[in-house]
Amino acid sequence: MALIALAADKGSPGVTTAAVALAAVWPRRVLLAETDPAGGDLVYRSAAAHGGPLNPNTGMLSIAATARRGLVPDQLWDHVQPLSGGLEVLVGLGISEQAAGLAGLWPTLGRAFASLADSPNAPADVIADCGRVSGDTPATELFPHAALVLLLSRTEPEAIARVRDRAAALSNKLHGGPNGAVRPGAPGMPLIGVVLVADTNNAAKLSGQVNDMLVHAQTGARVVGTIADDPAGADQLAGRRRGRLEKSLLVRSARKVASDLYQQFGAAWSVPNTGHAGSNAGPVGHQGATGHTGPTTGYTGTGGPGGHAGAGR
pTM of the prediction? Predict the structure, then answer.
């Protein structure tokens, strides 16, 4: 079981930037799902593997009809589109009004996402870009099925205060109160982590300070890594700028976060859930049913070394 949900409280910390960067370097097969009820961006900015545009009707929109009849995890692949660099994505809704079609289906999606790693045919982890969350955002219904809920935050004082309060609210909702020793992946008990978007020169110091604050406030959350505040790298990832994307601070920092998370929790994620037989999640570098092997390094998008939703979301 490995559903990793990324979200933010307010502002523009770059949730989609982080989600795409992490998915592009994830150490085993991964599905990137745009689950922001406000709508996704990949369809507007990314090229499909065939060189043309992504189909906006294949993804979260098309999966709604299937999910109403019940959803087997492998059915997710029927709604997935590969980007030009090979990253497999479940394209998000076009506009927020379409979220009404998913009413009542978010827990079903959460269970399918979480169980995909146990598929006997095409196992994969799922990284879900949940966008900005608040108490009434339906995407939070995915969280009880996640192994990790990662809150992305910049390091301005107001941003840190918001992520502290959001982490505490999620801990109360998911864990029934502050709990700093929750077993990650337990049903309804995902680990809540904070990923900071920070200048690399100050990242270590800021991480320690913010982590101390989260612990002191008994939020139940911990800082699990930092993503470089790298506008040039974000532009490369979005296809707006040329350059060696793999050398960018953004991708290098995302690779470190992905590696650390997988090193810490990967063994637990490789254990099948009860009731799901034949898990074939395999080790790092697993080759799935579509021939994808290992991390999606070399991911490219629209017009160059990019293809994500942009740094502003």
Answer: 0.84
